Amino acid sequence: MVQGVKILTSVAPEAQAEVLTPDALTFLAVLHRTFEPTRQNLLVARDVAQRRYVSGASFDFPAETSHIRADLTWHCAAPGPGLEDRRVEIIGLTDRKMVINALNSGAKTFMADFEDSSSPTFANMINGQVNLRDAIRRQIDFEIGGKPYKLIQKLAVLLVRLSASIFDFAIYFFHNAHELIKRGHGPHFYLPKMEHYLEARLWNDIFLFSRSYIGLPHNTVRATVLIETLPAAFQMEEILFELRNHSSGLNCGRWDYIFSAIKKRRADRASVFSDRKDVTMTVPFMDAYVRLLIQTCHRRKVAAMGGMSAQIPIKDDPKANEAALGKVRADKLREIAHPLIHAIARQVFDENMLGPNQYHVRREDVRVAAADLTNADVPGKIIEQGVRSNVSVALAYSTAWLGGSGCIPVNHLMEDAATAEIARVQLWQWVKYAVRMDNGASITVAFVDHIIDELSPTIKSIVPEINEKHLKITTDHLKGQIRQQGPSDFLTSDLMPFLTMADGVELRWQHSSW
User: Residues 253, 214: contact at Cβ < 8 Å?
Assistant: First the structure.
């Protein structure tokens, strides 16, 4: 065993033996010891910033970096091999079947998600590493129920989204970086939940250190940053600048962005949104965010990626299926959530976009001010069905997550943690400000408690293999959330101890991180 490193669970012993090798653990330990102090300081800075927002500080573009935004001479590195054309990108779990289906889907790129689409049980995380290692080496074929799953010749290019970030990065990078380059692609990553350009600087330092540690050639690592927090929307140029030698663009993480907009502005009564379904990409603050992201990326010659289109096929209802596919066409987004949707998404881009990208479309006509990014004008009403929908999806997702499933189909949409987070903070916000529904009734703790109690027994219809113990935990958690002075940062952080206890980890060793 590596000095100072202890594995606290015996779950997935075969996978552990394959990827938690002494050399890999040594690399992980060095990364942790080198960068953990900086990471902790950045987390403290997030808390300090949130306290400023609660005290009334406004959101704005950083004054200290105005020279970076004004300098039009700098650009990011050219796209890494395989990232020149990202017109259709699929996102999915890292289980063996999904990895094969996604790589075979016909999409240009596949984002293997260790974050919001995953329930981070130790088995899920460590087996996911094995599955990606095997996929890269084309040794992932298997059979289930008599049906073979095999990789075809032409595959989507693999990108990896990180959760418990340094661990996931270290294990994947150590085992696969050289192999990926040998096969014509560099290691490509997605960086989620970023809030500040100094966090991008940390990742740039991690990439430089790691490349040097394993002897990787220059200019081979690429990372796309998810702009899915409100503070990051004001620092897109700076984030690209910090990662300019490693950047492969920015992505509109729209669901988490809505969640962040509510959470970060929770002290502002004027920023209470109407029903979740009304917060679309066309409302002012979302439209401004997308236009600024596209302009920023094209100005710096990197990809501007649209947020995920979450529709999934409806096999037993042709009319409803066509309506769902119509929404994908209308959305004109670059990401999809189901392998059978890629053809629709590709058709939209083939018809409307000549060539693999539009870096040349500079959008100099776009003018986005700070006030545009915080414009809380969302048309619509708050209705009882919206409250019920939020309760239902929050309970269903959280309960499935405790059972090891990180994304679930709900009403023909593939939902991950972001949807549950929006639902949770909206319920908190509506109770906090005792907002009135369209029928004149106020939303109170007692009212939401009643709906939680009413809907809790129905969650089995959404999550068939529900564990009653898990449902009790999530019911209590949601009731606790609407009573708090402020919402928890992440419901997954609140619930993580239950996963780690199930993995046999003692409470004293538990610690959540971004």
Answer: no
Q: Which of 285, 255, 270 is nearest to 373 (CA)?
A: 285
Q: Hunting for tokens 């564990």 — which residue is that?
A: 467
- As given in the structure block, the two tokens for residue 387 are 């409250």
In angstroms, the Cα distances linking 464 to 104, 414, 458, 459, 468 are 29, 16, 10, 8, 11
Pairing of strands 147-149, 157-161: unpaired
DSSP count for the chain of H helices, then E strands: 19, 13
Least confident of 3-12, 20-29, 336-345: 336-345
Calculate Rg over the CA atoms of the chain: 22
Percentage with pLDDT > 70 across the chain: 88
Single out the residue of 214, 206, 215 nearest to residue 31, CA to CA.
206
What does the alpha-carbon distance between residue 75 and residue 300 come to, in Å, rounded to a whole number?
4
List the catalytic residue out of 96, 161, 299, 300: 161
Q: In whole angstroms, give the CA distance from residue 167 to residue 173.
A: 10
Residue 32 CA to residue 274 CA, distance in Å, equals 42
CA atoms within 13 A on the CB side of 207: 25
Residue with token string 């890292």: 94
Cα angle 204, 210, 214 (rounded to 5 degrees) comes to: 150
What CATH number labels 384-508?
1.20.1220.12
Contact between residue 114 and residue 94 where contact means Cβ atoms under 8 Å apart = yes
Which residue has better confidence, 311 or 240? Answer: 240
Residues in the chain, total? 514
pLDDT at 442 over 70: yes
454-469 tens-digit pLDDT: 999 999 999 888 899 9
DSSP state of 309: E
SS3 233: helix
Per DSSP, the residues of 90-151 read: EEE--SHHHHHHHHTSS-SEEEEESSTT----HHHHHHHHHHHHHHHTT---EEETTEEE--
Which CATH code for domain 13-373? 3.20.20.360
* Calpha distance 407→390 (Å, rounded): 16
Q: Taken in order 12, 493, 162, 355, is the CA torsion positive or negative?
A: positive
Residue 356 has a pLDDT of 58
User: What is the C-alpha to C-alpha distance for residues 288 and 278, in angstroms, rounded to an integer?
Assistant: 16
Q: Residue 63 has what DSSP assignment?
A: G
What are the boundaries of each domain within the chain? 13-373, 384-508
Q: Are 390 and 276 in contact (CB under 8 A)?
A: yes
Q: Respond yes or no: is residue 85 known to be catalytic.
A: no
Whether 416 is catalytic is yes
Measured from the Cβ of residue 215, the count of other Cβ atoms closer than 10 Å reads 8
